[in-house]
Amino acid sequence: MTEPDPFAAPPGFDDDDDIPTIDHAMMHSDVDFEAGMSSLPLVSLALMIACALVFAFQVVGGARIDVDRLSAIGALVPDRVRDGEVWRLVSATFLHGNFDHLLGNMLMLFILGMACEHAFGRPQFILLYVASGIFGSLCSLMGGRVSVGASGAIFGLAGALIVLFWRHRGRLHLRDRRIGVVLAGWAGYQFLLGLINPNVDNLAHLGGLLGGAALGLILRPAVLDGRDEVSTHPVSLAGMVLSCGGLGATALFFLPRLLR
């Protein structure tokens, strides 16, 4: 009588069929970018409401198309910024030249804001928006003209998303991967309009785009690293506090002029 082999496979066991394997999908699982995205981006909506209220006061105060009045209340005036009124780097992003200008910017803010709040979390989104607006304003100063509008900050949101989608293209699943191309095409189209229309501030657009893209390399993607983890991280909270402090300091100088 022979002893059973302790290392022998049990009856019915097929080496080729029953050994578990790790396939490509298990090693490279994608995160659905749109999953869990809120259709009510609260910070973006708050910014939109603020811009709309500022525009309403512009209309009431006669500063809708009056360059002198816009300059007095908070437009980006290079000479005044150099004289120390640095708060204009932010206040100018809440002013708009006309209703079409406001409507176009708010539409893009809603769309890109929804994606960015989801991608980076609200604390980092506030930093991204404010910092991109400042980058746009700083770049606009080189043009030497009076400027208003949120488009520099909005271009920053587009820049951050383009970098996010490119940098994490192996981890993020986009239901339509052409979205990065669409964003780049939209930015290019806006720059083309700026070449045709002298009233469009392409320098602000460029500054915002580059600033947002740079931040897109630095900010942690909450959609990948965990929303709670990223949003409660000390660095994220410090950036939010710094940005909110900048908005508050701007309001101290801006609102008294707007409400006169």
Automatic annotation (TrEMBL):
Domain of life: Bacteria
An annotated Gene Ontology molecular function: serine-type endopeptidase activity
SUPFAM superfamilies (alphabetical): Rhomboid-like (SSF144091)
Span of domain Peptidase S54 rhomboid: 84-220
InterPro entries: Peptidase_S54_rhomboid_dom, Rhomboid-like_sf, Rhomboid_protease_S54
TM regions (residue ranges): 42-61, 125-143, 149-167, 179-197, 203-223, 235-255
Localisation per UniProt entry: Membrane
UniProt EC number: 3.4.21.-
Gene3D superfamilies according to UniProt: Rhomboid-like
Pfam families referenced in this protein's UniProt entry, alphabetically: Rhomboid (PF01694)
Membrane topology qualifier: Multi-pass membrane protein
GO biological process, any: proteolysis
Chief localisation class: membrane
A GO cellular component entry from the record: membrane
Keywords associated with the record: Hydrolase, Membrane, Protease, Transmembrane, Transmembrane helix
Family from the record: Belongs to the peptidase S54 family.
Name the record gives this protein: Rhomboid family intramembrane serine protease
Gene source species: Singulisphaera sp. Ch08
Source species taxonomy: Bacteria, Pseudomonadati, Planctomycetota, Planctomycetia, Isosphaerales
